[in-house]
Amino acid sequence: SDMWPGRRAWHTTCCVSDSLCVVVGGFVEGRAVGDAYVIDIERRRAHAHHITLSDARGYHTACCRVASDGSARIFVLGGTRDDFGDIGSALSDLCVYSLDSQAPTALAVCADPAAQLQRQLDAERREQE
After folding, report:
1. Comparing C-alpha atoms, which of 6, 17, 9 is closest to residue 41?
2. What is the pTM for the complete model shown?
3. Per-residue confidence (pLDDT) for residue 123, from 0 to 100
4. How far apart are CA 10 and CA 19, in angstroms?
């Protein structure tokens, strides 16, 4: 059955074609989510798809690119894990998804350099204690 994204904030929506758009992530009742919905505007139907973002997120950016063969990719960058915009929960990773067959599939997740640096600093701090 069709499911609609429901009330959410700080999500992204990008158009894949004249009739399809994708809603990614955001906050639902103050909690970050890592879901995606493909919405068929002409048929007024939405399909929920579980995608595995490296972290559930809101305040991120996303864009879609459609190739000449009709295949589409969604690029999701950054965001934050909490609804207060705390810099400690900021993300800097890039996730790439294929939208073939109207179902987002992870193609690549680029490392989150900010998180790696924070882990390194935390480890060094623990060694000094």
Report:
1. 17
2. 0.73
3. 81
4. 23
